[in-house]
Amino acid sequence: MATIAVENYLKRILLLSEGGEEVVPMGALAAALEVVPGTATAMAKALAGEGLLEHQPRIGVRLTARGRRLALNVLRKHRLVETFLVETLKMDWAEVHAEAERLEHAVSDEVLDRIDALLGHPRLDPHGDPIPSRHGRLDSQVYATLATCATGRRLRIVRVTQQSADFLRFAEESGLRPGTELRVDERNLTSGLVILRRNDDSTLALGVAAAGSILVEPRA
Amino acid sequence: MATIAVENYLKRILLLSEGGEEVVPMGALAAALEVVPGTATAMAKALAGEGLLEHQPRIGVRLTARGRRLALNVLRKHRLVETFLVETLKMDWAEVHAEAERLEHAVSDEVLDRIDALLGHPRLDPHGDPIPSRHGRLDSQVYATLATCATGRRLRIVRVTQQSADFLRFAEESGLRPGTELRVDERNLTSGLVILRRNDDSTLALGVAAAGSILVEPRA
DNA sequence: CGGATTATTTTGATTAGTCAAAATAACTGT
DNA sequence: ACAGTTATTTTGACTAATCAAAATAATCCG
User: Fold this and answer.
1) Measuring from the CA of residue A42 to each C1', which nucleotide is nearest?
2) How far apart are CA B205 and CA B195, in angstroms?
3) Residue B188 pairs with which residues in a beta bridge?
4) Is B110 close to A95, i.e. CB distance below 8 A?
5) Among A49, A83, A183, B12, which is most exposed with the fewest C-beta within 10 angstroms?
6) What's this model's pTM, rounded to 2 decimal places?
7) Which residues from chain A sit within 8 angstroms of residue B115, using beta carbons?
């Protein structure tokens, strides 16, 4: 059985590699997992030995089919658990990430299937992140962000990447949830400011970094 | 934070010591945790250093107040999770023990409180085991068992200790659940046999060991 | 009492995961 | 092209948890 650390490495590589296809450099992986680079290298070699990823020395790692399958299963657990915590236990979406980070390693496939059924087989978690299917299909549509989309157009928020509790609390208070409609009034890359306008005509300023973590689609 | 291993040691000591009061010998502890005795000794010394238990060399261990508090919290998680799995997710009571064994270490106090509320603050888990209160009170009434009670009297099953899936499946099929009413027709300690009679007059034979894990009270 | 049995502790190794810091390779820009 | 910077790997050490097997203490009985 994969240990918790192994599951975390695989999941993180999946998230850093646009669905497991791209090569992830060791530095990025180590930083994301908050370990020193040498630790990531050591683990990469071990996981390569297990056939869960390919390690191209001095370049990075890429998941094998088996590694990807495992990683998707962990991600599915994470996102379904988050959905469960919000929908069933009525927790705040800012808190659920940390909880799911532990629960994803303790929930069996059996329990997960029942949670999935209880929730009515959701396809998106509370942040709008797609939930991988039981058999490893992951909807990874590429969306524009508030930092990159055209200004002036009517938009709908589809997803809020960035899981920090602080940011999510701020987003909640500011009405920036999946489903919210708005548009970008103005964007100034020099000052790093993005000005949003809500449907009620109120405005809100955001830094580009924050704006980049909010994915949007043109309003239908 | 206590590691998973530490939580398991504390919980096991609690269960082996009638609520944390009695001294548990190392052999019993090691056997229950399926580790070699030396391992249990090593851990006992470490936990004594942490102030979670007292280690009386060559005698055994006893929980301190702090150790007991921690152990009760783990046990509360275990039993509430089991209840949740049966009540909310409709799992079979034979499966839930193994699941709870992992989940008890991943569920936060926050999530637990919400599960507790969702279930309506149950006092017993699906096996009839008492659920410790949030502040560490544990109802530990002493019951007779089918191996020790008087024969002939009308009884009600209150609790099924013994968590193995095999046994629980058998109990389920035989109608031996908490709440079931029956009596002991006959008990032969030489042959090790206990003969039960259900309310519909059907009978069932059980070994004394199995009978000892079914707790009963006189029918009201 | 004292030898045999049984329980417990000690000692020495092992594994997984980690860090610190030295060594090495690759890339960058003039 | 080469010196400097940056990224990666290697090496050596540490911690938590475990096992195997030797050493030691306690208990039981004839």
Assistant:
1) D9
2) 4
3) B193
4) yes
5) A49
6) 0.91
7) 89
